[in-house]
Design brief:
Elements (H helix, E strand, L loop, with lengths): L1 H28 L9 E8 L10 E4 L2 E11 L6 E8 L10 E6 L6 E6 L11 E3 L1 E3 L4 H14 L7
Parallel strand pairs: 1-7, 2-6, 5-8
Antiparallel strand pairs: 1-4, 2-3, 3-4, 5-6
Length: 158
């Protein structure tokens, strides 16, 4: 009888460990098990959305305030349109706020950073952040540097 209760205890302990690992994996991946919190949507248009994907973080002053829902191409302007879902507690963003695509570290994940503006009018549900700064693509920088160094004229010999 004692070995049976020991086996049940070990089984329950193993089940609790697997459940903890599952919850940890969901937290790390950005998925949630519960219902969505009270949020509102904003849009931003970028020339280049390289590296931004759904579930990317949206931050302000280093604090996560939302996530990217979709990234698609606007058929009229041919720009990348990013749909963001922001927490309702941050519903006082001025209309002249700036959205930038940033990188965590040198080659880390991409996320959107929002810098606030100074206007008194605030963005509402479905509002558009007009002032944006696109992603910095490392390959473009290297290409510009190499092209610039090749095009330089050699110094005249004395």
């Amino acid at each position: 009888m004692q070995s049976r209760s020991l086996e049940i205890g070990v089984g329950l302990f193993l089940l609790a460990g697997l459940l903890a690992l599952l919850l940890l994996a969901l937290r790390v991946s950005g998925l949630s098990v519960g219902a969505a919190e009270d949020t509102y949507r904003l849009y931003a248009y970028f020339d280049n959305t390289a590296g931004i994907s759904p579930r990317a973080k949206v931050t302000m002053a280093g604090v996560t305030i939302g996530k990217v829902v979709t990234v698609d191409l606007d058929r009229d302007s041919f720009m990348g349109r990013v749909t963001m879902e922001l927490d309702h507690r941050v519903d006082n963003l001025p209309v002249d706020s700036t959205a930038s695509i940033l990188t965590a570290g040198l080659l880390g994940e991409k996320y959107i950073g929002i810098s606030i503006g100074g206007e008194e009018e605030v963005l509402k549900e479905g509002g558009v952040i007009r002032d944006t700064q696109s992603a910095l693509v490392l390959e473009d920088l290297i290409g510009k540097f190499l092209l610039n160094s090749v095009n330089k004229e050699p110094a005249p010999a004395k």
